[in-house]
Structure formats: C-alpha cells, structure tokens
Amino acid sequence: MVKVGIPRALLYYQYYPMWKTFFGELGAEVVVSPPTTQATLAVGSSRVVADTCLPVKVFCGHVLALVENCDYIFIPALRSVKSKIYNCSKFLGLPDMTRAVIPECPPILDMDIDINKGKRRLYQAIYKLGRPFSWNPFKVRRAALAAWQAHREYKELMINECLTPPQAIARISGAEMPSPNPNQPAIALVGHPYLLYDEMINHRLIHRLEQAGYRTLTPEMLTAEQLETAITRLTGKPYWTYEEEVVGSGGHYLESGVEGAIGVIAFGCGPDSLMMDMVQRQAIRLKTTPFMSLTLEEHSAEAGVVTRLEAFLDMIQRKKRRGAEVCV
To answer: Inter-axis angle of helices 224-234 and 270-286, to 10 degrees?
Structure first.
C-alpha cells in the first residue's frame, strides 16, 4: 500500500481529518510524523537560515522525520481560502522551500489552493492531487466529497463539544475523551493551532492551565458567525487568511466573560504581531478581561513561560478577590 506522509505541523490541526479521509478513500495509508521534540526543532533549524520563523523550522523537522517512512509527502501551497483574503508568505512557497532544503525528501504531493483563481482551478488541482492513486476522476471526486464531509463534521465536533483539535482527532480515532467541565473557570487561548497545540513549542501551556484548575477555550470552539462578527467589530474587514484565529477569537472572548485571555504568537511573525496588537488594544479599551501576550521562539525557556503564566493566574485571582471584597 502506498504511504502518504503528513507532517504534524502548520496546517495539520486544521485539516488532518480531511486529508486523511481523501487519501484513505483513494487507497493510500496516511503516516503522521511523531509529536514535536527538541530534536525535531534542532534538525529542522539546521536546514534553514536563522531568520526563518519558528513554525517553519518545526515543519522542516517533521518532514525529515517522515523521509524514511513514506512514499510521498503531502505539502499543499495554501494561498487563499476566501475571496480577496490572503495567506502568510510562509505557506505560499512551502513545497518549493521543502524541496530546496530537504533534497532527500520523497516526491512531494503539492496542491495550489487559491479561491481567487476560481472553482475550476481548484477542481483541477484536486484531480491532479489524486492522479498518483487513481486515474478515475469519479473516484477522485468521491474522495474529495468524503473529505469535505469529514472536515465539516470535524469542525462541528469541536464547536458542539468544546474540544480542541487534538481532542477532536482523538475522538474521531475512537479514543474516549472526557468532556470539559462547564463549571470550571475558563481561560481563552488566542492564536494559531500550530502554536496552541504543539506542547513542545508552548511548553505544555494547556496542560498547565488544566493543572491550575482552568478549562481552556480556543478559536476552534467558535462558529464562523461569531468570529466574523468580532473581526468586523475590531478591523472592519479581514485581510489575512487566518485572521479569525487571532482577531476574531480574541475579540469574541474578551467580551464573553472569561477569567482571562492569553494571546500566543511566534517571534518575528509580522502578521501575528499586527493582529495580536489589535486584540491587546481592545483588551486595554474594555478593561474587563485580563490579557497576556506570550511570544514563543526556539530559545524560549520553560521556566520563563511558567513564571509568566503563574504571575498571570495570580493576577486573575487577586482581581477576583478584589471583586468579592467590593461586593461585600
């Protein structure tokens, strides 16, 4: 059976169930790289220049982990998924960059996704992607429809059950996942999935919040309408493809009554810096929800992240105590 490798980085948490379904319907076996380790980051960093952003360094490490374990590696070039809204440059040339810095990489299944070029170009790209597995266009079409349905169910599961992408993927795979306790105080996490759910990069941020007695609310738990309303309120019109993950979720959660919100960005990322600044300005204007911006890079020390998190949670507790004293 032909094996298709999928790196556990960048777009993995948004689209893995869809990709797995598509290739599975075409008779291929999907192989996912192991969770990120320090070695993954180190070997990925060694292949690119120092100025490359952290998520791309991690991505290269995951590709290298798949080199000996699959026949193909799937790396799409995702340019735009909505009209006149564009993606970060690191996604546009990802297949070409991978070929350049990892010459030993197996053949790359690349797919140019750009809604601005019209549906016909998108359909052609889908058929081209399925051609190594089947020349039957009807079989490829059925696989694409099944993949889209899997993606919709995945998103609905996260919204309806308040699950994070790793929890939803585990649930889809058949694992028993406990439902979040709605009575626990909530902390909102704002940022891209490749930062929020990679435990090595963020030093187990979600786990630490759970250990402190908080449940986490993330962008994937919000509907498209909630995200679009918040973006319109803050910026008027989105420009970046994943602006909803930062501006939309941040704007919504700051007015939802959560105990606090944490914005997570990668060092040196221009779009993230602009979007998180909008959220931070909104938090200052509202003055109702404590907000902390956490910047991650490859040299971020675990002790530094833990210290900042403990100080932030302590601030929330002091705010609640002051509120209780005023009420008395």
So the answer is: 80
Q: Which residue has the higher pLDDT, 48 or 79?
A: 48
298 found inside a domain: yes
The top-scoring range by mean pLDDT among 91-105, 150-164, 238-252 is 150-164
Chain mean pLDDT for the chain: 87
Residues 115 and 206 in one domain: no
Of 257 and 180, the structure prediction assigns the larger pLDDT to: 257
Least confident window among 34-48, 161-175, 205-219, 288-302:
288-302
Please give the structure tokens belonging to residue 227. 């995200």
Cα distance between residue 19 and residue 15, in whole Å: 6
Identity of residue 94: L
Tally of helices (H runs) and strands (E runs) in the chain: 15, 10
pLDDT given for residue 328 in this prediction = 33
How far is 36 from 39, CA to CA, in rounded Å? 8
Structural tokens at position 268: 């040196």
Residues 147 and 2: their CA atoms lie apart, in Å, by 18
- We report the CATH number of the domain holding residue 268 as 3.40.50.11900
Domain that holds residue 41: 3-159
Question: Is the domain of 10 the same as that of 146?
Answer: yes
The verdict on residue 262 lying in a domain is yes
Q: Give the CATH number for residue 22.
A: 3.40.50.11890
Q: Specify the pLDDT at position 323.
A: 63
Taking only Cα atoms into account, the Rg of the chain, rounded to an integer number of angstroms, comes to 20
- 128, pLDDT greater than 60: yes
Same domain, 13 and 135: yes
Structure tokens at 117: 């070029």
Partners of 190 in beta bridges = 263
Distance CA 221, CA 132 (A): 36
- 30 pLDDT band, cuts 50/70/90, is very high
Contact between residue 44 and residue 79 where contact means Cβ atoms under 8 Å apart? no
Tell me whether residue 250 is in a domain: yes
Considering only CA atoms, which of 127, 67, 71 is closest in space to residue 98?
67
